[in-house]
Design brief:
Elements lengths: L1 H15 L3 H13 L2 E2 H8 L3 H13 L3 E5 L7 E5 L1 H21 L5 H28 L1
Helix pairs in contact: 1-5
């Protein structure tokens, strides 16, 4: 699984033009609009420090803006800038083509089975991690 995921990440980056962690952040902001870094870390499944480094890099590129939340000054919100939205708009067709090509040869039933198996594995991994934390 790990090897397949690494190959997919590399191929995604070369075809779409963005590393997968960065893309997940951009896509989350595109789909959800502005949101807190805490929510973004949870949605993208990134640790907060890694997310902060990604956001800082994208902020320097002019793709995102960050600001303290107006209702809760403990939170920092991130949003796409117009330049960031243009980056997403340019990458979306490449992403669609990448996944279309990647799923060639798989039937709808194959894809449903794959999604089901991956969901079960994810739940099992989360359960195992929770059990380990309880034992520690």
């Amino acid at each position: 699984m790990g090897q397949t995921y690494r190959v997919m990440q590399s191929a995604f980056s070369s075809k779409v033009g963005h590393a997968l962690p960065r893309w997940r952040i951009l896509l989350a902001l595109h789909e959800n609009g502005p949101c807190s870094q805490k929510h973004l870390a949870e949605r993208c499944r990134l640790d907060p420090a890694s997310l902060t480094r990604q956001l800082q890099a994208m902020e320097k590129l002019g793709w995102i803006a960050r600001a303290v939340d107006a209702q809760d000054n403990r939170l920092t919100n991130a949003s796409l800038t117009p330049a960031g939205q243009a980056v997403v708009n340019q990458a979306l067709p490449k992403r669609a083509a990448f996944f279309e090509e990647s799923l060639k040869g798989l039937s709808a039933a194959d894809i449903d089975t794959l999604n089901r198996v991956l969901s079960v594995l994810e739940e099992n991994f989360l359960h195992a991690a929770g059990d380990r934390q309880k034992a520690a």
